[in-house]
Amino acid sequence: MDKVRNRSGQAITEYVLLLAVLVSLYSLLLKLLGGSEIMNRIRSPLEKDYQYTYRYGHPKARGPDDGGVKYIPQYRDGKNDEDFRIFINPPIK
Amino acid sequence: MGMKCKKTVQSHSVRCLKSGQCGQALTEFILGMMILISFSFFFIKMAAVFAIGNYIHYATFMGARSYMASHDKVSTQEESAQQVMKDMVGGRWKGLIKPKNGTGKVGPGQIFQDEPLNYWNQGVSFPYTATLSLYPWNKQGQSVKMELVSESWMAREETTEECRKKAVEVKGISGAMEVQWDEC
Predict the structure, then answer these.
(1) pLDDT of B4 above 60
(2) Which of B154, B160, B175, B148 is nearest to B46 (CA)?
(3) I want to staple B144 with a disulfide (CB 3.0 to 4.6 A). Which of A45, A49, B128, B132 is the partner?
(4) What number is the ipTM of this complex?
């Protein structure tokens, strides 16, 4: 233990200050990442691809609410020829 | 006489008291674990959402199956499907998923609405939201928000009411000709 009166508590003060700086930098980094392309790349497979796969069975398939029907084999409207789909067709890009 | 080597062993607490670094390792461990655990729980939660999603697919299928079975009226078919959804999903996993409209929607499917007689395009849809946080102090806009919809379109048997109505219509068209019907 530090017996010198003037220096007691110096280590913990420095530790807290250093921690504050590190937390601020980490928060800033996360804030910058929040709106960046990297974050969108992390989110996209869960928020878009998985959403369509879960609903229609394929990441590229779309329903009438998603800007027109695409890659849904049961759908027939005679307007487009993009309804046909086998499990591996079309490939995911 | 050989010299005896005397080795003194100081306990960890004595050493840390002398150095004035008591608890530093523990503090760093806690801070590190906070980040590690939050990332681990992101994947655990994601796995839970996938598993629940799979179950909800099954629940909507069971709901659609119940909706398909014939009853006296369409409203009874709808109630039957809603009841299945309520029993299987209602009120479960509140911390992981948020249903958008109670126990889902029962009725015609969105894809084949243009079909004139779409008894076969009817079923159950269940929209819900699952939110995943990347770190503990995640703000609302920074989390991964999954807007999921589980759909099951099977078919719907004609109700007794619809069957009788159709029998009357056909009898009217056929005039004197007798039409043989299975019992409605």
Answers:
(1) no
(2) B148
(3) B132
(4) 0.73
